[in-house]
Specification:
The chain is α/β, with parallel strands linked by helices. It has helices at 74-85, 128-135, 160-180, 189-197, 204-222, 252-259, 300-305, 316-324, 366-369, 380-386, 391-406, 441-447, 469-485; strands at residues 52-53, 67-70, 90-93, 105-106, 114-115, 120-122, 140-143, 148-151, 244-247, 264-265, 270-276, 279-284, 288-291, 293-296, 309-311, 326-328, 330-336, 348-351, 361-364, 373-379, 415-418, 431-433, 454-456. It has one domain (22-158, 232-486): FAD/NAD(P)-binding domain, CATH 3.50.50. The longest helix has 21 residues, at 160-180.
Length: 486
Amino acid sequence: MAAAGLSACAANTDPEPTPKPAAPSTATPLPVAPTTSAATAAPSPQPTLAVRNATIAAPTSTQSPDVIIIGAGIAGLAAAQKLMQRGERVLVLEARDRIGGRLWTSNKWADAPMDLGASWIHGVQGNPITALAKQIGAKMARTSYDAAIGYGPDGKPLTDAQEAVIERYDKAIRQALRTAQKQDPDQSVKAVIEKALNVTKLPADAQRAVSFVLNGKLEQEYGGSVAELSAHWYDDSAEFDGEDELFLAGYGAIATHLAKNVPIETKTQVRRIEWKRGEASVTTDGKTYRAEKVLLTLPLGVLKRGAVAFAPALPAQKQKAIEALKMGVLNKCYLRFPKVFWESKYDWMEYVSPKAGEWVEWVSFARPTGLPILLGFNAADAGRAIEALSDEKIVASAMQTLRTIFGRNIPDPTDFQITRWNADPFAGGSYSFNPVGAVPEMREHLAKPVDETLFFAGEATSRKYFGTVHGAYLSGIRAADEILAV
């Protein structure tokens, strides 16, 4: 069962070939810095940003903070708060016209803030985001994977026999991946499973069961296709204990809290970074800023696209990490109805789709909010493919699945909200994953400072907590500590 991660921060409920210990919190949530300027902005679609290595032209104007932070997501804001508390002058440059990055709460529905990015705190015990939520008095609702129901391809609730088939192949997949993690060379999850289970020779119901498990427990968890996910390293992460909790007023409250009193310039797209030890200039469209240090919190998807020029080029080891690691996709489709026509006691609904990966996971907001809202997910290959469709076709596809399950007479939605994280030029995907060809140490290479001048943060730089909001937050604290240690 998957949940939404940094674009949606998926819940950690995947097969576990290797044990994952509960992790203690490594950072104390920050009070806001006592300065005078603040920044807020509303969400909207964005134009292009990327990163490449190139020669920089001379600056046209200057400003002089101690540290320039590129990106007003959770990592950049966390770092800004800590640096300001220690007396550093910071300036945050944000390409979007809003703060938060992949934390994005939509207020399109006045009575129902909906998170287009991260929605849940995953594992509330010891999680620094839990402490931040308590600090600001955020109202939370707990969702449970025990409150779930599954439906077969015909739309009827799964029978005991169907559930037994799914459980059998779930167990077989777990065992095959455990075995693969003890063997060399690394392979994709798909290659391991196809070989171990001889999938093409299985009967149709068994093939659907395998597809259902791989999508629901891996692709929706990590955002990457099983054809790309590394069998050795896909799950090389740690978790916090406890249940998952949903922000009733939206996750964006955390970004707003951390942005308080932080000087932020939105709609400021960084084009060029020229640097040498102890000195850097950051050029945007029309301005150049100077500082002793620069902290980059750009998403991996942006780094991979290549349109911020670096002079000199980033170290080869860091470029290799950027190239090898990949961005996953988990897209959301919120549907609002005139009434609840499903059983509101269930938080999660799963569908053994006849079309691999399509509309496998659904969340009901009826119990936690009392509102007739359903959220459908599409991940990995299906998540990318659906972005090419019009909103109307996406809604029609979702409704085809819902009418298969609940009958042709269910009402049409009164409204919808849809994400396209892969096409978002300031994200390039939902969150990072470990594909075949990447190793966990590459995240440490991505995080490593360069000449005490360029510093790096963001969920992709977190070896333990990649793909999560708490991973991004902790990376910002880590980068601030590195800057302060210089």
